[in-house]
Amino acid sequence: MSNGFWMELPTPPFYDPTKVGEVWRVPYEQRAQEALDWAVQHNIKPAKEDRFKIALVLTDMQNTFCLPEFELFVGGRSGMGAVDDCRRMCEFIYRNLGSITTIVATLDTHQAVQVFHPVYLIDPEGQHPSPYTLVSHEDVVEGRWRFNPAVAPSLGITPELGQERLLHYTRTLKERGKYDLSVWPYHSMLGGIGHALVSAVEEAVFFHTLARYAQASMVIKGRRPETESYSAIGPEVLFGPRGEQLGQKNEAFLGLVLNNDAVLIAGEAKSHCVAWTIEDLLGEIRDYEPGLAKKVYLLEDCATPVVVPGVVDYTEQADEAYRRFEAAGMHIIQSIEPIASWAMVSLGE
Known about the structure:
By secondary structure, this protein is of the alpha/beta class. It has eleven helices and twelve strands. A six-stranded parallel beta sheet has the order 7-2-1-8-9-12, sandwiched between helices. Strands 3-5 form a two-stranded antiparallel ribbon. The chain has a two-stranded antiparallel ribbon with strand order 4-6. The protein has helices at residues 28-41, 63-66, 81-95, 137-141, 152-155, 159-175, 199-212, 252-259, 270-288, 315-327, 339-347; strands at residues 54-59, 102-108, 121-122, 134-135, 146-147, 181-182, 217-221, 262-268, 296-304, 307-308, 312-313, 331-333. Helix content is 35%, strand content 14%. The relative contact order is 0.17. It has two domains: 4-110 and 187-347, Rossmann fold (3-Layer(aba) Sandwich), CATH 3.40.50.850; 118-182, no CATH class.
């Protein structure tokens, strides 16, 4: 019992692993026809016929995080982590084209004036923080960093409310055991090329869509200026100091677990957007039915933690988080493992 016995396929002739680290235009019309022909050649059925449904979640596999020349490249300790992750992910999709039922891609989506970008904050001399500065609640209380009143009109708030929100925000992060507010380089800018999926990944997702007649879902996250949104399920802080809503939870992610037999999660960065998405998903699962955690599979070799040599290294925090997820019932797997090796276990075969 399986989707074509989870048969592994070859990679299509057009796929070039040496181009994964580059930006280029996907030739949609050509790939569409090739996908239809590929489905006929390899007897790939429409996704609606899958008896064992697999959802693949690609977390923020965008240029801004995945390519070395872009703003917030996740190189990891190897220096090429996210590029290697994208290559392995493309090959995983192509090998398992007939087994992956649906693909969900999250897109970190920002504008310049947001709480984690330098322009949002100033020091007593009016200077903005450098990227990778960590801003604690104590820093805000003691005045080392404060809300930049010059951006208040563009956000539709008063300078006083901006400062009040910053105090509340950093205090809430501390109380919830989250990372301190991190100041990041300007990245994932809406309308910019960094916001786009890595070309090779986009091509693989498009090819899957046409070969399996399965529309991919694109999940926009991170547009609200007052809060970080590492998790695809919800912002770091939902409410402001006056009870105002700073963002909304995405309830659809629990539906992925309920409506599929397996949910695979990969992407960038393992220490931040991936880890917090899994953390929030695990919280949703525990509230609904803890046993559902066994449906979740973490593609560990397709996710890399944030490492900025000489500045920050989140490798240990990411590894510790994955150990917690595994202890809660989730599975850690590698992309080279045949789907049959773990899917049959899920079925008790």
